[in-house]
Amino acid sequence: MTPSPRTVGRRRVAAVIALVVIVAAGLVVHRVAPSAAATDVAGDALYAVAVYTGLVMLFASGRRAALGALAVVWCVAVELFQLTGVPVALAAAFPPIALVLGTGFDARDLVVYPLAVVAVVAIDATVGRRGGMTSGGRGLEST
Fold first, then answer.
1. Using one digit for the tens of pLDDT, what is the confidence trace for 25-75?
2. Which residues pair with 141 in a beta bridge?
3. For residue 11, which of 63, 60, 52, 67 has the smallest C-alpha distance?
Protein backbone atom coordinates (compact mmCIF):
# COMPACT_ATOMS: atom_id res chain seq x y z
CA MET A 1 0.00 0.00 0.00
CA THR A 2 1.46 3.32 -1.06
CA PRO A 3 1.06 6.19 1.38
CA SER A 4 -1.02 9.15 0.27
CA PRO A 5 0.75 12.38 -0.69
CA ARG A 6 -0.85 14.03 2.35
CA THR A 7 0.55 11.36 4.67
CA VAL A 8 4.00 11.62 3.09
CA GLY A 9 3.87 15.39 3.52
CA ARG A 10 2.93 15.12 7.19
CA ARG A 11 5.69 12.58 7.76
CA ARG A 12 8.22 14.84 6.07
CA VAL A 13 7.18 17.86 8.15
CA ALA A 14 7.37 15.78 11.35
CA ALA A 15 10.85 14.61 10.33
CA VAL A 16 12.04 18.19 9.71
CA ILE A 17 10.80 19.28 13.14
CA ALA A 18 12.34 16.23 14.80
CA LEU A 19 15.64 16.78 13.00
CA VAL A 20 15.87 20.37 14.24
CA VAL A 21 15.28 19.17 17.82
CA ILE A 22 17.80 16.31 17.46
CA VAL A 23 20.51 18.55 15.99
CA ALA A 24 19.93 21.12 18.75
CA ALA A 25 20.23 18.38 21.38
CA GLY A 26 23.40 17.12 19.72
CA LEU A 27 24.93 20.58 19.73
CA VAL A 28 24.08 20.99 23.41
CA VAL A 29 25.73 17.66 24.20
CA HIS A 30 28.75 18.64 22.11
CA ARG A 31 29.18 22.17 23.49
CA VAL A 32 27.76 22.14 27.01
CA ALA A 33 27.96 18.66 28.51
CA PRO A 34 31.23 17.71 30.18
CA SER A 35 33.44 15.42 28.15
CA ALA A 36 32.87 11.85 29.33
CA ALA A 37 32.08 8.42 27.94
CA ALA A 38 28.36 8.99 28.55
CA THR A 39 28.32 12.26 26.60
CA ASP A 40 30.31 10.64 23.79
CA VAL A 41 27.78 7.80 23.58
CA ALA A 42 24.89 10.28 23.74
CA GLY A 43 26.40 12.32 20.92
CA ASP A 44 26.95 9.22 18.80
CA ALA A 45 23.39 8.05 19.40
CA LEU A 46 22.00 11.47 18.50
CA TYR A 47 24.13 11.45 15.33
CA ALA A 48 22.66 8.09 14.27
CA VAL A 49 19.13 9.26 15.09
CA ALA A 50 19.73 12.45 13.08
CA VAL A 51 20.92 10.42 10.09
CA TYR A 52 17.79 8.23 10.23
CA THR A 53 15.54 11.27 10.64
CA GLY A 54 17.24 13.02 7.74
CA LEU A 55 16.60 9.99 5.56
CA VAL A 56 12.94 9.98 6.63
CA MET A 57 12.80 13.66 5.66
CA LEU A 58 14.26 12.91 2.21
CA PHE A 59 12.42 9.63 1.60
CA ALA A 60 9.23 10.02 3.62
CA SER A 61 7.50 7.14 1.84
CA GLY A 62 10.43 4.78 2.38
CA ARG A 63 10.23 1.65 4.49
CA ARG A 64 11.49 2.07 8.03
CA ALA A 65 13.71 -1.01 7.86
CA ALA A 66 15.37 0.18 4.65
CA LEU A 67 15.91 3.69 6.00
CA GLY A 68 17.26 2.25 9.25
CA ALA A 69 19.66 -0.03 7.39
CA LEU A 70 20.84 2.87 5.25
CA ALA A 71 21.37 5.02 8.36
CA VAL A 72 23.52 2.31 9.96
CA VAL A 73 25.53 1.86 6.76
CA TRP A 74 26.14 5.63 6.58
CA CYS A 75 27.21 5.86 10.22
CA VAL A 76 29.54 2.88 9.98
CA ALA A 77 31.03 4.18 6.72
CA VAL A 78 31.72 7.57 8.32
CA GLU A 79 33.30 5.87 11.33
CA LEU A 80 35.54 3.73 9.13
CA PHE A 81 36.39 6.79 7.00
CA GLN A 82 37.90 8.31 10.14
CA LEU A 83 40.64 5.65 9.96
CA THR A 84 41.96 7.34 6.80
CA GLY A 85 42.77 10.62 8.54
CA VAL A 86 40.92 12.60 5.88
CA PRO A 87 38.20 13.84 8.26
CA VAL A 88 40.88 15.27 10.58
CA ALA A 89 42.45 17.16 7.68
CA LEU A 90 39.06 18.44 6.53
CA ALA A 91 38.17 19.52 10.07
CA ALA A 92 41.46 21.44 10.31
CA ALA A 93 40.43 23.41 7.23
CA PHE A 94 36.73 23.70 8.13
CA PRO A 95 36.01 22.83 11.80
CA PRO A 96 32.21 22.34 11.47
CA ILE A 97 32.84 19.33 9.20
CA ALA A 98 33.93 17.46 12.33
CA LEU A 99 30.29 17.45 13.43
CA VAL A 100 29.39 15.45 10.33
CA LEU A 101 32.48 13.33 9.74
CA GLY A 102 34.00 13.14 13.20
CA THR A 103 37.75 13.06 13.63
CA GLY A 104 38.78 9.90 15.44
CA PHE A 105 37.78 6.27 15.08
CA ASP A 106 36.15 4.67 18.12
CA ALA A 107 35.10 1.02 17.87
CA ARG A 108 32.42 1.62 20.52
CA ASP A 109 30.58 3.77 17.98
CA LEU A 110 30.10 0.71 15.79
CA VAL A 111 27.89 -0.67 18.56
CA VAL A 112 26.14 2.59 19.49
CA TYR A 113 25.00 3.42 15.95
CA PRO A 114 22.93 0.29 15.24
CA LEU A 115 21.44 0.31 18.74
CA ALA A 116 20.37 3.93 18.36
CA VAL A 117 18.89 3.28 14.92
CA VAL A 118 16.94 0.25 16.16
CA ALA A 119 15.56 2.42 18.97
CA VAL A 120 14.54 5.29 16.69
CA VAL A 121 12.94 2.93 14.16
CA ALA A 122 10.91 1.40 17.00
CA ILE A 123 9.90 4.86 18.21
CA ASP A 124 8.98 5.84 14.66
CA ALA A 125 6.78 2.74 14.33
CA THR A 126 5.14 3.37 17.70
CA VAL A 127 4.42 7.02 16.90
CA GLY A 128 2.96 5.96 13.56
CA ARG A 129 0.58 3.51 15.24
CA ARG A 130 -0.41 5.92 18.00
CA GLY A 131 -1.14 8.62 15.48
CA GLY A 132 -3.98 6.52 14.11
CA MET A 133 -1.82 5.35 11.24
CA THR A 134 -0.70 1.90 10.24
CA SER A 135 2.97 1.19 10.07
CA GLY A 136 2.99 -1.15 7.10
CA GLY A 137 6.75 -0.89 7.25
CA ARG A 138 6.65 2.33 5.24
CA GLY A 139 6.18 5.00 7.80
CA LEU A 140 2.89 6.75 8.29
CA GLU A 141 0.11 5.51 6.05
CA SER A 142 -3.57 6.29 6.09
CA THR A 143 -5.79 3.62 7.60
1. 999 998 888 888 899 999 999 999 999 999 999 999 999 999 999 999 999
2. 134
3. 60
How many C-beta neighbours within 10 Å does residue 54 have? 19
pLDDT band for position 6 (cuts 50, 70, 90) = confident
pLDDT at 109 over 70: yes
Contacts by 79-87, CB closer than 8 A, 24 or more apart: 79/105, 79/106, 79/109, 79/110, 79/113, 80/105
pLDDT at residue 3, as a whole number: 78
Please state, in angstroms and rounded to a whole number, the distance separating the CA atoms of residues 2 and 15. 19
| Identity of the amino acid at 69 | A
- Residue 61: burial class (beta carbons within 10 Å; 0-12, 13-18, 19+): middle
Q: What is the 3-state secondary structure (H, E, C) of the chain?
A: CCCCHHHHHHHHHHHHHHHHHHHHHHHHHHHCCCCCHHHHHHHHHHHHHHHHHHHHHHCCCCCHHHHHHHHHHHHHHHHHHHHHCHHHHHHHHCHHHHHHHCCCCCCCHHHHHHHHHHHHHHHHHHHHHHCCCECCCCCCECC
